[in-house]
Every structure is written in C-alpha cells, then in structure tokens.
Design brief:
33% of the residues lie in helices and 26% in strands. The chain has helices spanning 8-16, 18-29, 35-39, 46-58, 78-88, 122-130, 132-138, 189-192, 231-244, and strands spanning 62-67, 70-75, 110-118, 143-145, 153-157, 166-174, 178-185, 196-206, 209-219.
Amino acid sequence: MVTYYLTMDEVFKALADPTRRSLLDELFREDGQTLTALEARFDITRFGVMKHLKLLEDAGLVVTRRRGREKLHFLNPVPIRLVHDRWVSKYAEPWAAGLSGLKSRLENPVEKVFEIYIRTTPERLWEAITDSEIRSKYNFGNLIESDWTPGSTYTQTNPKSNAPLGTGVNVEVDPPLRLVQTMTALWGDDVKSEGETRITWEIEQVGDSCRLTVTHDQLREGANDQLYGGWPMILSGLKTWLETGELLTTPGSLMYT
C-alpha cells in the first residue's frame, strides 16, 4: 500500500537546498507567483526553477492553483508548523500571533492557501470541522454553532469570552467534501474593521488519508494577519487530534483555554 504522507525527511530535504529556501523566501515576500515571475528572480534555467518547485510541492511546502491559463504558487507553512510542534513548541515561546510580517501584500485581494494530509476518512474529517465540541479541541477552545445547511449562519464563541468571536454564512455545504463560508472576525477592534472574508475547506480522499486544503481569500490588501495567521496551528492541532486523539499543548493552542 502506498502511504500518502509528507515525512519529516521530505521537508528537511526540501529545505536543505539554498535555492529552494530562496524560493520560499520569495513566496514569503509575495505569495501566488507564476513560474515566470519566480524564474526572473534567479540566475538559473527555467527547468532548474521548475525542478526545485516540484521538490517543494512534493514536500507540501508549496501549493499550486490555476487561475485561467496561469499556474500560481503559494507558500504552505503547515509542514513547518508540524516540525515546530514536534520539537520546538515544548521549549520555546509561541510564534508571534498571526505569523507577523508574513509577506508584503499583493496588489489584488490577498489569498492564503494551506494544505495538510491527515490519516482519516472524509466523514470523520468533516465531523471534526463541523462538530462544535471536536472543533474546540484544536481551535483555541472555541465553539462553533450552526445547522450546517446552505445559506445558514454560524457563530463562533468561547466559554471565556462574553461576546461572539466571529460570525458568518455557510455559502456552500457539500458534506463530506466541500464547505465554503464567509467570516467576520469579532474578537477585537483591530479585526472587526477588516469586514467579511471567505474560507473554503476542500477534502479529497487519497488512499487511506485525506488531503485538506483551506483557502482563506477575499482579504483586503494589507489585511490584519490575525485573520489568517493562526491556520498552521489550527490545522496542526486538527491533524494531531484525528491521528492520535491527543491535544496540542503549545502556548498558542492554549490561548483561550
């Protein structure tokens, strides 16, 4: 049986080459770049850049999306977050909230793409996303209430907060494969002013595992990175709970618990 897992060896191998690290730096600086744009920044052949990008994709550090005829490349920080959770988080302070200074903004509305492989079934993964009690185990202790029908609303709360932390609408509900939601963050004045954004959850079964892709878009240029910076921690906690039944105890994961 083929195992569809990103191993630590693949991540470290991808990070070992300085050119590949520089490619990640470029996507850290400006996400969603084409091959042509990336090629122009390196003194190597187009084929060489393609080879490095393929290794980064295989390690899960880069995710691609088609936009018309263009193929855009996005930095996926989740595998690095998993390395952090395995070895660093027990000894170090949490990452700055929202991965501050993540990258300079695109001229168009900002889009963030996160991808992770989890050994579970689509049905169990869907349950973990939509069940309030399970959601609280990996989402900073937050609860989410909804009837999960198309067009319905949802509210995110926390027992330690006197007011809702977020609200939105379930635009598309296609269990157990796809969920599209709007989100308005309410946990602080600095994020309330950001207005409505969109979150898309896509689940694809791959062998005995699932590939979960979370796309957070319709963010304004220069949006507060609190809106999307927590995704690596959330998805890392989701993977840990589904595969081991254990909770992450990183300081960030315990923010509200």
